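Convert to structure. Protein one:
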Amino acid sequence: MVLETRHLQVVRAVAEAGSVTRAAALLGVSQPSLTGQLQRIENRLGGLLFVRDRRGAVPTPLGEFVLAKARQVLPAMEALHHESLRYNAQGEEQRRIRYGAVPGPLMAGTLRRLGEQSPGEVTLRTETSSAMLVQLIAHQALEFASVLDHVERPLRLGAEIGSRVIAVEPAMALLPESHPLARRPEVEIAQLADATWVVPPMDDNGLRECLLRLCAEAGFTPRITHETEATGARDLISEGHGVGLGQATFRDTAGIAVRGLARTPLSIRHILIWRRGVPGPALVEEVAAHAAAAYTAAVARSPAYLNWLERHPGYPAGADLPGAAPGPPGPPGPAPADAGGLFRR
């Protein structure tokens, strides 16, 4: 019989338990089975390892020698096992990245860059709810996710969630090109008091709440006549059935004019999140760089936003907005639950 790690574990268990009976219970085997195994170990080593007295099983001099060696070898073997698991997990991290996103400027560009740069499989899961993606990250169903919230109503993140603000942009008015206000570079929210509104359904993110607040501050209640997802909203607005709010990086769509809101009453943050301690720091930095590049490319494809930025050179783009500056990973701050959900092509 070749001496193995499991044999040293038996010797250690008997010494620590003080009897074969208690050691068998700790190891989850029967007492006769453990007795037979101990006898085979003793036969292999050429002598008794334990004697029985009133104190229980007491190590012999040979037993003390073997125990001393076992107490050196077993911790090293256990450390090797755990370190190998961690090493393999890091390898899995490099081989597979599960990425989630709300529809927005980070989604497709980040996915493409991950696919080009990552050696293994990259998968995408889209959700309309930022809060759902936070839960998927918390339960380790995703490695990374791109979510959004409003500066005025930050997304709640638990302490286990790491985050990086990638960009901050203004919310924009989405108008039919035939709308009289579409000829202006910016509109006052109060000028839309008589409009009919197209918004996401009630169970989406926080657009309706933000819209109601803005309109209440302007002295009116919006007339919400159509509730639909982003694709339906584009069709309805382009056909003249209502107006909406959208992200600044909303792509050009035939029949829709993207116009800024005067005094920028609502700002949107695009945030990369992950579970702390799961992706390594180097991978976090790599994915954050991909997300930032994706956002820059999205801005370049958005003429209306580029024009708006030319008229607002002092827009903070994140640095001066509360809780919005990119920097060390960390939650944006406590707030009511999820607040994402503006229309985005």
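Protein two, convert as well:
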Amino acid sequence: MMTGAQYLASLQDGRTVFLDGARVHDVTTDAGLGQSARIVARGYDALHRPGPDARNPVFTIPRTAEELRARCELLTKHDVTLSLSAVAMALLTSSTELTHADPAAGERIQHWFDDCATRDVRFAELITDAKGDRMLAPSQQDDPDLYVRVVDRDSTGVVIRGAKFHTTAGPIVHELVVLPTKRMKPGEEQYAIACAVPADTPGVIQITSSHHARHGHPRDKPISAKLAIPDSMVVFDDVHVPYERVFLDGDVARSAVIAHSLGLWERLSGVAHMAHLGDQLAGMAQLVAEANGTAGISHIKDKIADIVIYATMTHACLEAALANSEVGADGMLLPSELYTNAGKLHAANHYAVMVRHLHDIAGGTIATAPSFADLANPETGAFVEKYLRGAKGVSADERLALFHAIRNMTADEWGGREAVSWLQSGGGLFAQRTVTRNHYDMAHAKATARALMEPIDD
């Protein structure tokens, strides 16, 4: 297993990364990307175990309910790069079906997974293409590169061209895992490509957005300082991928298999994270109500109760997804499709309302609060201390901490990014609604309805 220092050193590989219009020659020393890399490094140190046989628990294949639960708990305790291991679980889940068309696919996936576990690397999932006109199929676009495709091949591998969006952690991981964004049709074989590409491969260009704390007192951004991870648009400018790293190549019939599997694992991670997030929202709402002296007001209590119910229902869906898990073809334990998708849909669909409740409870000072630097300034500190204190015994320091945490969590650059992420991650609400309906036992529901209509047999 790598230490944090070894992880940081592993990123100094000459990868091509741009941020804010400038080339970043070393992501570990950049003000923003370096901050994110150090977040991941702390996770490496927290999980590190010495010895040649040590293995990061994120690479454990869940085969029991306890192992599946442990995986969910692991993901909520560390940075998001561990959650991105969903793409590895998706490949393993898809392996059996992909092998039907390509007997070597399963071996390649397993070899790649074992190699990643041995090297203790992190990966990013690359699934969303540029798409161009969303009403047109890949083969109908005026530019054929708007979906990642194979443009050439030789005896050693394929050459891919195109771009993938929304690549969370792309600049600070080791492996970029490319998947088809949807089921391709006959005639679109060039777009049916799944492969793993090292981040430092020639021709891979990452154009990055960062949500780190760019200025102000460190305590003004307490959450993004712990969690902010960059996103990137990854361009493949005629990138060669060896066949041993290619998992799907031209098989349009199975081009959606991995994406569907990824949706399941990513949504399970989402439910686990949002259950934890629900607890954080409830706790923050109660704390700020107490600090403001409004915790006893009826409409405040009602809003906090709504957040509590939201958190409880999300936890319940997570528990149901784990309790109703099923064994897959290869012995891996898979969470329930029904409860995983229903839980993610519930949590994402109602998140904005819970944030609105929190804002209403906290008040406008979440947007206008002075900086902690103003509290520390001898010229202004006394005024901030005098006028920002709250209910009896609540200092200005405590209220400022609450206001800045809520703003950072829900209302600034990082909070806005998170709101979009919770909504869109795992394929968006429509996809989750569709999968939930497809896995619901409608035949049973119809039978219960018909039973109500049966006449009483006297």
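The mean pLDDT is 95. Residues 257-292 form the longest helix (36 residues).
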